[in-house]
Amino acid sequence: MHENFYHKLKVYYEDTDAGGVVYYANYLKFLERARTEALLTIGLSNSKIKDKFGAFIIVKSCNIEYKKSAYLEDNLSIRSFIKSITKTSFMMNQIITKDKDIIVEAKIHLVLVNEKAKPIKIPEIVFENFKPYFCDSIKL
Fold first, then answer.
1. Which CATH number covers residue 42?
2. pTM above 0.85, yes or no
3. Which residues are catalytic?
């Protein structure tokens, strides 16, 4: 069994279009915030990874499915978990819900790269700290 990261957020006026519906691109911002908060829960941050390892976590690809709309002042929850991992990258699934309704499902391929944008091996501390959040299908 794997663990999940949970991040809660409220939809603000700036997140919506003229009709009060969350603009589709803003879901990507919500997902990024949840990934950043997930890093913080394991004692890391994007700046710590940059300073300590000279590395950046970048999005290589994103597959997002919009199932329902979210609206102004909705309270949303984002569940994130690591589906698989290789030596240089990992797949993270993220699900945005409102109450019990799924709003968005996303599969994000994240890669660690150096300052020259070349993939690098995931540092052991990152791997070890994320280990409780991996699914059963770990590829090394």
1. 3.10.129.10
2. yes
3. 17
